[in-house]
Design a protein that fits this description.
Layout: H1 3-7, E1 16-21, E2 29-35, E3 43-48, H2 56-76, E4 88-89, E5 98-99, E6 105-110, E7 115-116, H3 124-141, H4 158-171, H5 181-188, H6 191-202, E8 209-211, E9 220-223, E10 228-231, E11 238-240, H7 242-253, H8 271-285, H9 291-317, H10 330-347, H11 349-363
Antiparallel strand pairs: 1-2, 2-3, 3-6, 4-6, 5-6, 7-9, 8-11, 9-10
The structure holds 2-acetamido-2-deoxy-1-O-phosphono-alpha-D-glucopyranose and magnesium ion.
C-alpha cells in the first residue's frame, strides 16, 4: 500500500512531504499527511474499516452534512470554521472517499493544528469543557433538517445488542463460553433493567435526535488554552438519544483507570469529574432536553457502560472479530475493567442522580 499515492488521490493543497501513522483507534487506521510549507494545512488520512462501516459512501455523506451544518453555525457566530469544525477533503473525482485497488476505503480531513486531545479527564474543569463541547455539538446539530442514513443499525440499541449477544452465545464459536459463567451472569442479571430504559426510546418518550455516539474524551479537540474547539471522529453520527452521548462520555471521563486496566483497583467512577462534565453539558443542553431526558441522564452512564461490558465480552466470546486487540485476553481484560466501572457507578448511583438534579436546578 503506497500512502503517498493514496494521498495524491485527494484534493489536498501543497506538495506532500511524508505520510506517517497516527493514533491507536480500535477500528480505523489513521495517518497524518505532512505537507510542505506553513501556509497549507496537514491532513488526516483514514482507512475506514469496511467490515464495520459497510456503507462508507453513506457514512461520508452523513459526516459531510453534519460538518457543513456546524460550519454554518460557527460562521454565524464569527468563529473560525476551519478550527471549530471538521473539514472533509474530497477525492479528485469529487467523491468524499477513495477506493484503492484492494477495495479499501480512504477518506481525508484537515488536521487542525495547535490542539490537544486528552486520554483522560484529570480535572473537573477539563471535564466541564468536554461536557460543554458535547452539549454544544448536540445543540448545533439539533436543527439539522437533512436526514442521516442509519449506517450502523442498532448501534447503541440494547435490544439489538441482545440479539447479537444471544446469537454469539448460541454459537460459542471458539468455545470460550464455558469458563465465563460469572461474567455472562453480569449481563443477564441486568437485561430487564436495560431493556426497560430502551423501551422509553422505542416508544418516543425519550426523543431521538442527531447525536455523535462515540463521545470518548479523545474525540474532542481542545485548544492550547484548554477551551474546547470541536468534536471529531464523526463516523458514528446518527439519529439516537442524546443520553447515549452523555453516557458514553461519562464512561470514559469519570474512569479513574484505563478502559482496559489490568489493575481493577485503579478503576472507579470519579464523581467530581461526573459533576464537572454534567455542569458543562447542561450549560448547553438544558435549553433543549426534556424532563424525561433529564430524569434518565445519570442512568445513561450505567446504560452505556453496561453496553460496553456486553460488547467487549461478546467480542471475546466471538473470537475477537470486532475490536483490534493487543493480546489474546485483551477483550476479556476490557470486560473486567468496564464491569468494575459499572459497579462503581451502581454503588454511587443515588449521588449521581442527586448531582444531575442539583446542577439542573441551578441552571433553571
Ligand atoms: C470504538 O473507534 P473508536 O476507538 O473511537 C467503538 C466505540 C467504543 C469504543 C471503545 C464504531 O471507538 O463504540 O465505545 O471503541 N466504535 C465503533 O473504546 O464501534
Ligand atoms: Mg476515536
Amino acid at each position: 500500500m503506497n500512502l503517498e499515492l493514496i494521498a495524491s488521490k485527494f484534493k489536498i493543497e501543497g506538495p506532500v512531504e511524508r505520510v506517517e501513522p497516527m493514533g491507536e483507534g480500535f477500528i480505523n487506521d489513521t495517518f497524518i499527511i505532512r505537507t510542505q510549507g506553513n501556509d497549507v494545512p496537514d491532513y488526516l488520512l483514514q482507512r475506514k474499516n469496511k467490515r464495520i462501516f459497510t456503507n462508507v459512501p453513506a457514512m461520508m455523506e452523513n459526516i459531510q452534512k453534519v460538518c457543513t451544518h456546524i460550519k454554518s453555525k460557527v460562521i454565524a457566530k464569527n468563529g473560525d470554521p476551519m478550527r471549530e469544525a471538521m473539514t472533509i477533503i474530497p477525492a479528485t473525482d469529487g467523491n468524499l472517499y477513495f477506493v484503492d485497488e484492494e477495495g479499501e476505503y480512504w477518506a481525508v480531513c484537515v488536521f487542525i493544528n495547535d490542539t490537544i486531545a486528552y486520554q483522560a479527564a484529570k480535572t473537573p474543569e477539563l471535564a466541564y469543557q468536554g461536557g460543554k463541547g458535547i452539549g454544544l455539538f448536540q445543540s448545533m446539530v439539533s436543527d439539522l433538517k437533512e436526514p442521516l442514513t442509519d449506517i450502523l443499525p442498532g448501534f447503541h440499541n440494547i435490544r439489538y445488542r441482545f440479539n447479537q449477544w444471544d446469537a454469539v452465545l448460541a454459537k460459542d464459536p471458539v468455545g470460550r463460553k464455558a469458563k465465563l459463567a460469572k461474567e455472562i451472569s453480569w449481563i443477564e442479571s441486568r437485561r430487564d433493567e436495560m431493556l426497560n430504559f430502551w423501551k422509553l426510546v422505542e416508544s418516543g418518550e425519550i426523543p431521538t435526535r442527531v447525536t455523535h455516539n462515540d463521545t470518548k474524551i479523545n474525540n474532542i479537540l481542545f485548544d492550547l488554552n484548554g477551551d474546547v474547539l470541536c468534536v471529531i471522529d464523526l463516523d458514528t453520527v446518527l439519529n439516537s438519544t442524546c443520553l447515549n452521548d452523555y453516557g458514553d462520555a461519562m464512561r470514559s471521563y469519570t474512569n479513574t483507570g484505563q478502559e482496559d486496566d489490568e489493575n481493577l483497583d485503579a478503576v472507579s467512577c470519579n464523581l467530581a469529574i461526573f459533576e464537572g462534565f454534567t455542569k458543562g453539558y447542561l450549560s448547553q443542553a438544558i435549553s433543549f432536553l426534556t424532563e424525561k431526558e433529564l430524569e434518565y441522564l445519570a442512568f445513561s452512564a450505567k446504560y452505556i457502560t453496561y453496553e460496553q461490558v456486553l460488547r467487549f465480552l461478546m467480542d471475546y466470546i466471538d473470537g475477537d472479530n470486532y475490536y483490534k486487540i493487543k493480546s489474546p485476553e485483551h477483550n476479556y481484560q476490557r470486560t473486567l475493567a468496564q464491569y468494575k466501572l459499572l459497579t462503581s457507578m451502581e454503588d454511587q448511583y443515588d449521588e449521581m442522580c442527586r448531582i444531575v438534579r442539583t446542577v439542573a436546578a441551578g441552571l433553571a
